[in-house]
Amino acid sequence: MVRPLVVGNWKMNTSREEAAALARSLVAAFGRPAAGGGTSMGAARDGPEIVVCPPFPWLTEVSAILTGSGIALGAQNMHTETSGAYTGEVSPHMLKGLCDYVLVGQYERRILFGDKEAIVRRKLQVAQQNSLKPILCVGENADQLDEGAGFYVVAEQIEADLDGATLDDRLTIAYEPSWTTMGRVAPPPIRYVADMVAHIRQTLSMLYSSTIADQMRVVYGGQVNPRNIAEIASQPGINGVLAGTASTSATNFSTLVAAFANQEVNR
Fold it and tell me: What's the CATH code, domain 5-30+40-259?
């Protein structure tokens, strides 16, 4: 049984006031237990697990707002070392006990900040060593797509990034092709996304086992929004989404969560 996961990556957006207001709106929408003993959508047992990833400066304040809500907190990035002379960086030791999740290998980190496979692999390992749940992002860029190499690239990333990792239900893989938001307007056809998710599971099966492939939570990220979420949620094997822009609106994010409500199955 795989519980769906809906993640909101706020990226470099929101002021302090906006972040607090957004967090409170999310809690009001589906976080806290409802009056009368029932539960709101996000807190229900058969609803998806919900994670928000605010910018680093707002983590502590957002954490306080989310306390007791059932909404988990995630970090957008972290350094490979637990401490040291790395001005401006945030270590996994700093996030331990504050965050539940951390994004690793997100395409902007790979493309704009040079996070190569060795760095992504190291981040994943130290995240697990510090009791953080990594969400490993993989995906091809525009040139690799045009060359027809997308499936090969994703398989290579998975093999390289998961080397030495603990493979259990605390690890999530997010298929997040960079070309959906960097240079291309249209998101990929849903059939392509479904085929890639199936390819990710096949790769896991070949590298490890069919049991690991079946139990691994695989989500999709790439221009996820209220207009296409129903189609995404209907696809077998897609266990949730990693949303960017849509997650900075409580109304839009609630629509994403609703699409995966009552889907606590490995379809």
Answer: 3.20.20.70
- For residue 198, name the pLDDT band (cuts at 50, 70, 90): very high
The whole-angstrom separation of Cα 83 and Cα 243 is 30
Instruction: Decide: pTM greater than 0.85.
Output: yes
Q: How far apart are CA 32 and CA 108, in angstroms?
A: 33
Q: Is 101 exposed, middle or buried (0-12, 13-18, 19+ CB in 10 A)?
A: buried
Domain boundaries in the chain? 5-30+40-259
pLDDT in tens, 99-138: 999 999 999 999 999 999 999 999 999 999 999 999 999 9
By CB neighbour count within 10 A (0-12 exposed, 13-18 middle, 19+ buried), where does 67 fall? Answer: exposed
DSSP tag of 82: S
